[in-house]
């Protein structure tokens, strides 16, 4: 595995949420391009909130991308079934 | 700490604690002037010529206490005056009022042992008045029970939550305000919303914006339901607001950060001043994406309101914790109250040792009646999910009433919250009320 990210057949894909820092939020598309170069499959570029979502095999490879404030694993939220007494 | 002193006794009215004995005053008066008014000329017209500008007293310690003073920057003066002169202040001029208020100057005391004794007396008095063996209170439907514990009930006209937040008394409807509810979607065929402006979008792959769960339609009903539903009591707060229904949770009730953040981004670009999110993860730490999203939403004039969580079991002394997204310091976290304005047994407590992980306010969240997908039409359910849209609807009313957005809107909600006896760990600044 190399430090530049990229595709690794043996590795699983991890869904991530990348928060862009204030200095780069106006250039979020360029940040997204740099994330792609590091092997991220970008699903959404959310300019209003300054966040890029997608999947990556080598999560650590994204930390060093200029403009990245944090890289977090996507969490799942569940409110339960409709017949639950407490929602 | 400064307090108005031990001479005032604490009492309890149906509206909450109040002062029963007159407070101690100095004999002077505090005058508050309207914006763009020249205090000196108003005072001169009333014959109050011996008032010194605070700028001239700078550096003279204690001078304000003995000298009648005008604080130009604040638009406030402290004066000794005869009753006739005070009347002249309020009525000497035709046109818009130049004096907003005239009130007695109060004597303030540093809290000391006398205060503590007074406090103890006050607590004993309070306990007696409340009847510590409270139980359901006597009399007073519509929450107008006499002294002691209130018990709000759904009436034929209004749900208990509408009454407790005084939404039915407000002249505001959320007109001109857009409220996004990010949830399980919306039943567009529901007759109570015929003729309403509803913009829907699904962020769930292979699912339409229609609500196949029920939770979303219930939350939209509480936040934005009609003033006069086809049948039954009024259950909706901001009946004049434009509705944006973002489906970020599946018909099975689950969703991911990606969909939720996309929904927030959509709501901001649609210009929604209020974003309601009755959802959360049971994770005891702040999730950085929601910190970024909440802060940027506020900067763009969108206030995000989220459910504190239902992970407490207070009957087992398990108080739970506020999870993401509500534990973002830039997102309003809402706890749930029952009909007695006590903390609901499931409502999560402030997350210890985590910046932002606190409960900010509370809303009605127990046995809440609202809309449900047809043909069921209505359902009553409980949760911080139900408290949240009450607060979101109320935020829309305040946004209309004040023109405030983002952080300023957040502040006005907190400032006007009805303080509760429950710990701030559980209810923050209290029950949000309508303007």
How would you sum up this structure, described in words?
The complex is a heterodimer of chains A (about 90) and B (about 425). Chain A has about 90 residues and is mostly beta strands. Chain A has a domain at about 15-75: 2-Layer Sandwich (Alpha-Beta Plaits). Helices cover about 10% and strands about 30% of the residues of chain A. Chain A contains 1 helix and 5 strands, in the order βαββββ. Chain A has one helix spanning about 30-35, and strands at about 15-20, 40-45, 50-55, 70-75, 75-80. Chain A has a 4-stranded antiparallel beta sheet with strand order 2-3-1-4, covered by helices on one side. The model of chain A has no long low-confidence stretch (mean pLDDT about 90). Chain B has 2 domains: about 25-105, no CATH class; about 160-425, Rossmann fold. Chain B has about 425 residues and is of the alpha/beta class. β5 (about 75-80) of chain A pairs antiparallel with β13 of chain B.
């Amino acid at each position: 595995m190399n430090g530049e990210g990229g595709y690794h057949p043996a590795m699983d894909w991890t869904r991530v949420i990348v928060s862009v820092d204030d200095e780069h939020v106006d250039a979020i598309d360029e940040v997204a391009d740099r994330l792609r170069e590091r092997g991220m499959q970008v699903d959404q570029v959310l300019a209003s909130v300054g966040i890029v979502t997608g999947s990556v095999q080598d999560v650590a490879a994204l930390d060093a991308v200029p403009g990245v404030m944090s890289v977090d694993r996507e969490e799942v939220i569940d409110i339960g079934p409709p017949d639950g007494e407490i929602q | 700490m400064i307090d108005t002193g031990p001479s005032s006794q604490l009492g309890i009215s149906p509206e909450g604690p109040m002062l029963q004995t007159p407070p101690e005053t100095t004999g002077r008066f505090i005058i508050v002037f309207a914006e763009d008014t020249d205090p000196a000329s108003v005072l001169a017209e009333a014959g109050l010529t011996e008032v010194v500008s605070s700028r001239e007293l700078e550096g003279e310690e204690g001078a304000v206490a003995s000298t009648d003073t005008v604080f130009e920057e604040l638009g406030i003066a402290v004066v000794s005056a005869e009753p006739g002169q005070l009347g002249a202040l309020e009525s000497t001029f035709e046109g818009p009022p130049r004096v907003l208020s005239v009130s007695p100057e109060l004597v303030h005391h540093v809290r000391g042992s006398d205060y503590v004794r007074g406090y103890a007396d006050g607590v004993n008095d309070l306990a007696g008045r409340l009847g510590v063996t409270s139980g359901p209170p006597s009399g007073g439907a519509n929450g107008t029970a006499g002294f002691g514990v209130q018990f709000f009930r759904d009436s034929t006209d209004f749900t208990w939550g509408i009454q407790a937040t005084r939404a039915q008394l407000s002249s505001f409807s959320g007109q001109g305000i857009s409220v996004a509810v990010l949830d399980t979607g919306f039943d567009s065929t529901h007759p109570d919303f015929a003729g309403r402006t509803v913009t829907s979008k699904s962020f769930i792959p292979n699912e339409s914006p229609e609500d196949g769960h029920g939770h979303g339609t219930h939350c939209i009903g509480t936040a934005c339901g009609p003033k006069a539903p086809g049948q039954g009591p009024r259950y909706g707060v901001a009946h004049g607001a434009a509705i944006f229904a973002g489906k970020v949770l599946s018909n099975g009730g689950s969703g991911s950060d990606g969909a939720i953040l996309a929904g927030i981004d959509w709501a901001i670009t649609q210009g929604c001043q209020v974003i309601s999110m009755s959802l959360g993860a049971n994770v005891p730490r702040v999730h950085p994406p929601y910190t970024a999203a909440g802060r940027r939403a506020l900067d763009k004039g969108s206030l995000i309101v989220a459910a504190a969580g239902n992970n407490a079991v207070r009957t087992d002394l398990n108080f739970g914790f506020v999870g993401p997204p509500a534990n973002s310091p830039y997102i309003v976290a809402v706890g749930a109250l029952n009909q007695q304005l006590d903390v609901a047994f499931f409502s999560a407590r402030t997350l210890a040792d985590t910046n932002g992980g606190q409960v900010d306010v509370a809303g009605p969240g127990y046995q809440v009646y609202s809309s449900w997908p047809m043909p069921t039409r209505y359902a009553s359910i409980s949760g911080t999910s139900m408290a949240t849209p009450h607060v979101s609807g109320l935020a829309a009313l305040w946004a209309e009433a004040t023109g405030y957005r983002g952080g300023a809107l957040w502040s006005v909600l907190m400032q006007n919250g009805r303080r509760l006896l429950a710990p701030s760990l559980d209810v923050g600044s209290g029950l949000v009320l309508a303007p």
